[in-house]
Amino acid sequence: MNQILFFGQIAVSVILIVLIAIQQRGTALGSAFGGGGGEFYSARRGIQKKLHYATIGIAGLFIILSILGLLI
């Protein structure tokens, strides 16, 4: 059971990294410090919204697997 949780956590972490990497938030590092020109607070639409919700769901699954790994 412990091995299943371990490999599941690795798979979920890879998916989480991919989801975070493909999200469009800015063209450079300067947008993280307020240089985005007003686009930083834009509304998410379409696939961008689905990617956002999928990232939240996968992050929650990662946390659950981590806690289960500690308890078992």
UniProtKB/TrEMBL annotation:
Its main location: membrane. It is a multi-pass membrane protein. Belongs to the SecG family. The lineage of its organism: Bacteria, Candidatus Staskawicziibacteriota. GO terms for cellular component: plasma membrane. Keywords: Cell membrane, Membrane, Protein transport, Translocation, Transmembrane, Transmembrane helix, Transport. It comes from Candidatus Staskawiczbacteria bacterium RIFCSPHIGHO2_02_FULL_34_10. InterPro entries: SecG. GO terms for biological process: protein secretion. It comes from the Bacteria. It is found in: Cell membrane; Membrane. One of its GO terms (molecular function) is protein-transporting ATPase activity. The chain crosses the membrane at residues 6-22, 51-71. This is Protein-export membrane protein SecG. Involved in protein export. Participates in an early event of protein translocation.
